Structure formats: structure tokens, C-alpha cells
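Hey,
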Amino acid sequence: MKLLQRYIFSQVFLPAILSLSALAVLALLTQSLQTLDLIVENRQSAATFFYITILALPQLIGIIMPLAVFMAAIYALNRMTNDSELVVAKANGVSPWAMGTPVLRLGVYALILHLIINLLLQPLAFRQMRAEILTVKTDIASQMVQSGRFVTPAPDLTVYAREIRTDGELLDVLIHDGRDAESKSTHTAKTGRLQRSENATSLILFNGSVQTPIEGGGLDVIDFQTYQLDLSDVVALDNVLRLKPSDRFLHELLRPDPLDYVTPKLRREMTAEGHARLAAPLWNMALVLIAMSFLLRGQHSKLGHGRKIAICAVTGFVFRLIGFAAASSAEGDAALNPIQYAIPLLVILVCIFLLTRRKKTRFGQKRRRRSYISARADYLAAEGLS
């Protein structure tokens, strides 16, 4: 028995890994389209793009893991049925529950991994991703200067740099500052560097000159080695890291810090997110049990089980969509949070009941059998009388 269960587990484990990998790649491609616009607009490197995309992977894995395990269970059980492996096991007296135990074990492993992702890996990754996105959005070099182009970050202020090096140094800088109508000036410099502190933002220019118009149409030219141009009134970026419910740990969702200002709407969203983190892993077992209930019960058909598999797949996906709908509805009404647990638990209990109950002869079969016996008795009686 142990050898059979190890074999069944090996047959379902590899498809689960392949399904999870394929769905994760597909989800990453979808996520990357959202990140691509941010990277292109702010002129960030490909490394930043891939880093932000990878940080979204834990949440994506948490969403698709129950579906990947479900698809793997359907595939493995159907293949072993078509190869008559499960048929032979049934003929030797192995119960459906005993054959399904390795598949259920995979569901339990997936549940534990899903719980670790939801409670630890996702908030850690999302916090880092949120900080990285904030760094990209508050990159003053990308906001003010573009290599080889005249940029106007504010009215009457034009900035040009021939080249921007990887370390942030600007080459051949030209700045026309007309923000003050009485003292317009043009700055040129061989190099420059944007500098930002907590209270101010400035552009440090090196080896250049300042040309200021004077009365009579002339220019007042002042050469400098170092010149600081204040840009604090131009760069007014919000550099405060604000966490969303998806970025918080479980204790922060269910018991927020009293010092944090949390609106009633945000509190409902945080509570719903916290319960969803705990309830979602249950779907790994629920969907696996649905697959077992459909494919380990009933008679073997030489024509295949296409119809049964289709009904099983639709049933599993519909129940999972109901779970997503319950989590979404709970964000507006906290009283719906218990439903997030009730739906997968109810599916688990019903499937366990179907797998463990003994198969009984249907009422119609009994009736047909009694009719046959009665007809046979009448026939024998008639033969005796004759």
C-alpha cells in the first residue's frame, strides 16, 4: 500500500510543479505589462524592471497555487485511470480514500506553503516593491532631465543635458531660469549633479558660467567652478511610503496600530484582507478533494471520462470564483468574513463524506433486480404447471 501511495504522489507532484510554473510565468507576463509603463516613463534600467516584477511573484503564486494543484490532480488521476492503474488498484480492494490520500497530502503541503507565502513572504516582498516604486517615482533625475532633450519641469524653467551617465552625472548642462522675471539667467556647465536632502533639492553645476541680461542689450557673464541652483520649489515629490493592505502583516491587518489613522473603510478592507490570507489556503484541499470525488468514484468507462472531467473542472473553478467573490464582498461588510472560511470548509466536508461512504445499490437497481426475480419465479412456476 505504501508503495502504491508513493507512486501516486510522484505522479501528481510533477504535474503540480509544471502547472504552477506555467501559470506563474503567465501571471508574471501580465504583471510586467503594468510595470513596464512605470519603468519607461521614469527611464529606469531593465534590472529595476525585473526586480519589481519578481517582487510581485509571491502574491501571484498564492493566487494560482490552488488552481495549479487542482489541475495537476485532475490530470494525474485521469491518466492513471486511462492506463488502468487505478482500475487494477480498485480490483485489489484498495478504497478510493486510500488511493486519494497521496493527492490529499499534496494539497496539505500546498496549504502549508500557501500559508507561509500569505503570512510572511507576500508582505515582505510587497513592502520592498512599494519602496522600490517610490524610489522610481521620486527619482528627480528622471523627472527633470532627459538625455539630449530640452525638458521644462516648471514654467519658465528649461533644462538640457547632452548625456546622463549611469552614476547620475550630467554632461554639458544648459539651464534657462526665467522664474523670476526681473533676474532671468542662463547657466551653462561642463558637468552637473542633482542633489536631494530632506529639506531641499538642488542642482550642483561645475565649471561653467551664468549669463544674465542687463540694460542696453548686453550680458553679465560670471564664471564659476561650483554653482548651486535651488530647485526645491520645482521638485515637490511625495516621498512618504504608504502601505496598502496587501503590504501589511497579519497582526497589522487585524489589530492596526492605534497611532495610525485608519478610516472605517480602510479598516474593513484590512480585516477582509487578513481573513482572506487565512482562508485562501483552504482552497488547496477543497479543490483537490473535488477532483478526488469526481475521478475516484463511479464506474470505469472504456470510452473515457471527458464529460466527468469537464464537470469537475467547471465545478472547481466556479467554487473558487465564489471564494474570490466572498473575499471581495467582505471588504464592504465585515459580517461576511466568516463566509470566506465557510465555503471551502463546506466543500471539504461534503467531499470527504462522498469519498468515505460505502457505495450503495441504487433504488432503481434493487427494483429491477426484484422484478427479474419475480419474472423468473413466474416462469418456473408456469413450466412446472405445464
